[in-house]
């Protein structure tokens, strides 16, 4: 799925941050399908921040201790508007066939 088109992922500040004072070591964050976290003897560490799917907050939603936070969605939306990413992503999704009408 196209989340960015012609825009470097490393320029998008979207990844989890862990507050270790709140972390209960529940391990729910390790369910991340993008392998953003690595489990260590001290608990989870964000080792692959740019692998995080932009806009996803699943790990934070599931975190028992509410120890995971993300940057502001407002800032993310402002970036998409400033860089005209919505139009580019929509165009790419149409090209890739994701926005075709299908009869159900």
Could you characterize the architecture of this molecule?
The protein has 104 residues and is an alpha+beta fold. It folds into 2 domains: 9-71, Alpha-Beta Plaits (2-Layer Sandwich); 72-104, no CATH class. It contains 3 helices and 4 strands; from the N terminus they run βββαβαα. A hairpin with a 2-residue loop joins strand 2 (37-40) and strand 3 (43-46). The model has no long low-confidence stretch (mean pLDDT 94).
The number of helices is 3
- Note the gap between the termini: 22 Å
Largest sheet composition: 2 strands, antiparallel
Q: Please bin the fraction of helical residues.
A: 25-40%
Strand content: 5-15%
Based on DSSP secondary structure assignment, what is the total number of beta strands? Answer: 4
Number of domains: 2
The CATH topology of the largest domain: Alpha-Beta Plaits
**Rg calculated over all Cα atoms:** 16 Å
- Listing every helix as H and every strand as E from the N terminus to the C terminus, the arrangement reads EEEHEHH
Structural class: alpha+beta
Question: What are the low-pLDDT stretches, counting only 5+ consecutive residues below 50?
Answer: none
Give the strand order of the largest sheet, numbering strands 1, 2, ... along the chain: 1-4
**CATH C-level label of the largest domain:** Alpha Beta
Shape: elongated
| Mean of pLDDT | 94
CATH architecture of the largest domain: 2-Layer Sandwich
